[in-house]
Amino acid sequence: MNATAENVGPGGTMNPGIATITLIVGVIGLIIGLAMAYPVLVEGGRALSQGTNMMWGLPVATYAFLALGSFGISMVAAVGGVFGLAGWDRITPRLYMLALAVSIGAIAALSMELGHPFRAIWAIPANMQVRSPLLWMGMPSGDST
Predict the structure, then answer these.
(1) Cα(63)–Cα(9) distance, rounded to whole angstroms?
(2) How far apart are CA 92 and CA 78, in angstroms?
(3) Is 113 exposed, middle or buried (0-12, 13-18, 19+ CB in 10 A)?
(4) pTM of this prediction?
(5) Who contacts 110 (Cβ-Cβ below 8 Å, separation ≥6)?
(6) CA 105 to CA 70: how far, in whole Å?
(7) pLDDT for 13-30, tens place per residue?
């Protein structure tokens, strides 16, 4: 972290006034962000005013993009192991962590579209809906004709 000469007091410590102001601005920003996110967290897609003519909303498109992006990052991470590249071992764990983070973002976008994302954390695994298209979205159809 770079600190300018005006912000640093004797002994290299930061001025407590600036740290307090930064904390206050951060708390105010967090409160505003939570107030703006509340309708999406409670109502889901209805809060985004999509209308009834749209089959898929922006959050579902975001989910699909992030899910495919996570798959692509995993494929790039596997290149080193498949082809035996020597310098690839340093970046592989970082790529897998990035793929996991992007996958968590995809699930977060989808759960916000459905509404009540905190309820979905326990309700989706507890009530497994095997006929749901979301469960079978990535599975092959099995129809070879």
Answers:
(1) 47
(2) 7
(3) buried
(4) 0.56
(5) 59, 60, 63, 134
(6) 10
(7) 667 788 889 999 999 999
